[in-house]
Amino acid sequence: MFVTGFFFFVFGMFFLFGSIDEAAAICGIIAVTLIFTSFLDKKRTMTVATYNGKNLILYFTKRNREEVNNFIEQLFEAANMFLLNKYKKIDKALPIEPQLNNIQFLRNREIISEEEYEVLIDQLYGRDNKSSIGFGNKN
After folding, report:
1. What per-residue confidence (pLDDT) applies to 82?
2. What is the mean pLDDT of residues 10-26?
3. Which DSSP state fits 127?
4. Which of 2, 5, 7, 114 could crosslink 34 through cysteines, CB 3.0-4.6 Å?
5. How far apart are CA 40 and CA 38, in angstroms?
6. Which sign, positive or negative, has the C-alpha torsion 31, 33, 36, 38?
């Protein structure tokens, strides 16, 4: 609505410079009305982006803004825990490539730290730093 009001304002200026005072006045009135209404009708929303392209829009008031923020934080924490439980498991019976992609996804999304990533990579490739009995490193 604000953008439309702005366009009416610009057209009104063109009409004013072109000596069409009536059209300039009409465009000016429409522009002021639309711009003023857009500020009065402003919706207070928070948008959460999703992977499928459909955004989650949450409406709030001044009184419950903090509650909506806390809900969004809990939503992100729950999503991260779900992804962590789903993709952090290492299974030697499964192919390495999909598991590697899952671990990289967790790191890129900053669900796991760089250290956790390295530990999981070592587990995936069987490079555990645990030595067998009698074959430990003697330094």
Report:
1. 94
2. 78
3. -
4. 5
5. 6
6. negative
Q: What is the pLDDT of residues 95-126, one digit of tens each?
A: 999 999 999 999 998 999 999 999 999 998 88
Which residue is listed with tokens 């610009």?
Answer: 10
What is the greatest pairwise CA distance in the chain? 98
CA distance linking residue 62 with residue 134, whole number of Å: 67
The pair of structure tokens assigned to 53 is: 């392209």
Q: How far apart are CA 51 and CA 94, in angstroms?
A: 26
**Whole-structure pTM over 0.90, yes or no?**
no
Summarised one tens digit per residue, pLDDT across range 59-98 is 888 888 999 999 999 999 999 999 999 999 888 889 999 9
Say how many C-beta atoms besides its own lie within 10 A of residue 8's C-beta.
Answer: 20
What sign has the CA pseudo-torsion 107, 111, 115, 121?
A: negative
Q: According to the model, what pLDDT value does residue 135 have?
A: 53
Within the chain, strands assigned E span: 45-48, 56-59
- Domain chopping of the chain, boundaries: 2-40, 65-124
- The CB-side HSE value for 94 (13 A sphere, CA atoms) comes to 12
Q: What is the mean pLDDT of residues 22-46?
A: 80
